[in-house]
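Thought: the user wants the 3D structure for the chain below. I'll pass the sequence to the structure tool as-is, report back what it returns, then summarize two notable features.
Action: structure_tool
Action Input:
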Amino acid sequence: MPLHQNMDPYILLSTLNMKMRNDNVGLLHVCCQYDLNEKQVCNILNPLGWHYVEAIKQFKPA
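Observation:
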C-alpha cells in the first residue's frame, strides 16, 4: 500500500512505534502486516531526523 502523500509523518511515526512496542515486533513485520514499503517509510521519517534502531525495534531521533 503506498503511503498517502498528505499523511502526517508524525502520526506515521507514532503509530509505527506504538505497534512495534505493543506487539514486540520489528519494522519489517509491521510493514508486512499492513502492506507498507519499509524503504518508503524510512524515506519519509529519516529526513525528519528519525532513524529505525533494530536492536530496540523503535524509531529514535538521530
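Final Answer: Structure generated. The helical segments are 9-23, 27-33, 38-45. Residues 2 and 41 are 10 Å apart (CA to CA).
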